[in-house]
């Protein structure tokens, strides 16, 4: 049966027990849900309520069609050797060009979808689409595999340190697709088809959009999942961090030294183990005797304090009994509700800890009230939401039990709902906060979540991977992003080889949306409450390096007004400030292949140096503009490749049509 429902707003198809519903969801966009017997309305997802639309629905005996702006979906009842199946094809409304089509995997296969039930209304679900020659696929969050085009990859849909699962992809064929399901699974982007898999869920839910180019697709995605707020101006400056400043005086002395040296500093970081116990969410007075005075001194220096807040709760925490008894902690399907080992203050050995459940409104309220009393009320407006995948050991999200549902169905929601705790809590107080998160899911941007790329190695290979990872997460709706400049796991400040890597990484970082130096440098200590790492301030690497880094700090200061404007554009349109060349130049086929350059806004093209010892590199300049070398003033025609000089004190940067962005001063 094929019918139009909801006053011509919905196309619905029933084939045996399968119910398929297609409805408009934002400009040029359609949402598809498929269930057994019925559509379930209370399944968590990423989509916000859309504005009213005026779709056109046509119903025939064996097919139906729904058009919403530039996107049309055609549903056909197709006879097969095993009976009739329903298949959906997406087209451009004006030309009928196929963008994407569901596909049967085999003539003896139950259509493009598989429901393998395992009881209680849950099933292992598969959704298959056709593959297309030459198609390139981007987005899907942030991954460490080092590729920009993810065609041919198999990716787990699960949150891990440095692996951020956001199931939204952008296709070179002109569409975007969101797998609107926060459960554990995988996506296979193979040559013979694309297959999305959910290990256990109640129904299939995906969303498709199109437009005149990638910028339109990104704008529609922001409309569908939420626009980011405006980034505060202070957050565009330099962030200083290390693992870790162990006490109040040590941290303040670093901020004072920046002032003495005349070096810009916007944010300084209090890392983990500053607390009494994990889950107390307050400063330990033994090391931080007067945080209010510390924040007041930082304010006089023009520096904001970012404080690390983990979602973990130790059994030794003063909050643990209350949260446990009120049902505010994540449960388990089997075994005790403790999910990761930790060696915290007061622990003679490593012990398991719990996590609070941010899908439970009462838990969000409890955590925010605690953080408000102990941090926010002191003047802190930046929170480092570390370990927010959450960091499970062993990594068994299937065993988790949330207020929102079983872990298998909803676990990937965790980082988004954790950001929501702090964003909505601050909004009630009439304030905005900046949230630096190690993970995210679709819609995290609407809660002001910035993401950094996790605990990464201090290697050239890692730096190359960061460039692609940052562009893919930007295409996944997250406009605020950064890395641990220099890598996280080590790096010897006295090594000439490492110093070169740091200088190049710092130059790259100056053009990222957020600009943050962090890492646990050599010599390192065993994990525990007394740990720290080697020095990681800009003056820690010798006078020659300091000279280079000082010039880069000044460059970032000059860029801040331009960057702030791009952040406002991201808020208004959903188009991220840092993006691949093809977002602005989709008709230039070469831009879809370039994966080691990027645009910062429309006017600044950046080509990081990604090889040890390199003092020049090739740069592709897109068609449709003239490009001026920001350092030499030499103009080049678009559609050409040039070899640009790259001495150690700078990386190649080009300005579109002579744009007046003060890169060189």
The level-1 CATH class of the largest domain: Alpha Beta
Whole-number tally of structural domains: 3
By oligomeric state, this entry counts as single chain
Second rung of CATH, namely the architecture of the largest domain: Alpha-Beta Barrel
Structural class: alpha+beta
Instruction: Please state the overall shape, judged from the principal axes of the Cα atoms.
Output: globular
Q: Give the CATH H-level superfamily of the largest domain.
A: Glycosidases
What fraction, in percent, of the residue positions are helical?
10-25%
The overall strand count is 40
Largest sheet: 8 strands, antiparallel
Please specify the SSE layout and strand pairing:
Layout: E1 2-5, E2 10-15, E3 18-24, E4 29-36, E5 56-59, E6 63-68, E7 71-80, E8 83-92, E9 98-101, E10 113-119, E11 122-129, E12 137-142, E13 154-157, E14 164-171, E15 175-179, E16 185-190, E17 193-201, E18 203-210, H1 214-225, E19 238-240, H2 248-261, E20 267-270, H3 291-300, E21 304-308, E22 312-313, H4 320-325, E23 331-332, E24 340-342, E25 351-355, H5 361-374, E26 382-385, E27 400-402, E28 405-406, H6 407-410, H7 414-428, E29 434-437, E30 449-452, H8 460-474, E31 481-482, H9 496-509, E32 515-517, H10 543-573, E33 578-579, E34 598-600, E35 604-606, E36 616-621, E37 626-629, E38 635-637, E39 640-645, E40 653-656
Helix pairs in contact: 5-7, 9-10
